[in-house]
Amino acid sequence: MSAATIQGTPDLNRVQRLRKRVLAALAAMLIGSLPVTASVFGPETAMHETIESVGFGLILMCVLGRTWSALYIGGRKRETVVTDGPYSLVRNPLYLFSVMGAGGIGMTTGSVLFGIAFALVAFLVFEGVVRSEETWLKSAFGADFAAYAARVRRWRPRLSGWHDAYELPVHPRLVLTTFRDASLFLLAVPLSEGIDHLQEAGHLPVLLQLP
């Protein structure tokens, strides 16, 4: 059943396009603030390096987690309620991993607070998207989705709920596209390093310092 056949439910393609535009605008604003924002911990301090390392780890988890999730849901979102693999742990693993990646981007600056800000903005955007998608899923799949939603939480994983599929109909193009898009998060690492060097050299003014 497609979105077009259900009256009063959101067009998922429209929701996804809106999500991408909003995320692009928010990312531009946040990234635009990076050149004039710095961590209170100096670039060469152990604390700064530790926060950066945690941020890099979160970005890697985002890339691998989104690719893993795409193996299960690629091409099946409109056809059935996907409940296997990462979707047996949490209802929105793709978005959850994206929130983690956003937090990781913020933490590559050496600031925990910036990481929290990035993650919070991403979460608020995705929360709206998730609710729109769930309206469609309820209309499209009725009792199947209701049973799934009663068993699996929207954002908080429950490891005890894990179960896997025996086999999967994998769509390589969709999986590779997801991997490519998620890999763009890694650009935050050289970007933050470059900004650190320019700030240290006095080429960029530091207007705000965050812990």
Describe this structure in words.
By secondary structure, the chain is mainly alpha-helical. 62% of the residues lie in helices and 3% in strands. The protein has one domain (22-210). The protein has six helices and two strands, in the order αβαααααβ. The longest helix has 40 residues, at 112-151.
Largest sheet composition = 2 strands, parallel
Helix content: 55-70%
Structural class: mainly alpha
Distance between the termini: 49 Å
User: How would you spell out the order of helices and strands?
Assistant: HEHHHHHE
- Please report the total strand number as a whole number: 2
Global Rg: 19 Å
Total domain units: 1
| Major sheet strand order | 1-2
Mean residue pLDDT: 86
Layout of helices and strands, plus pairs?
Layout: H1 12-33, E1 37-39, H2 46-73, H3 93-107, H4 112-151, H5 172-183, H6 188-200, E2 208-210
Helix pairs in contact: 1-4, 2-3, 2-5, 3-4
TL;DR?
This protein has 211 residues and is mainly alpha-helical.
Write out key terms for the chains shown.
single chain; 211 residues; mainly alpha; two-stranded parallel ribbon; 6 helices; 2 strands; elongated
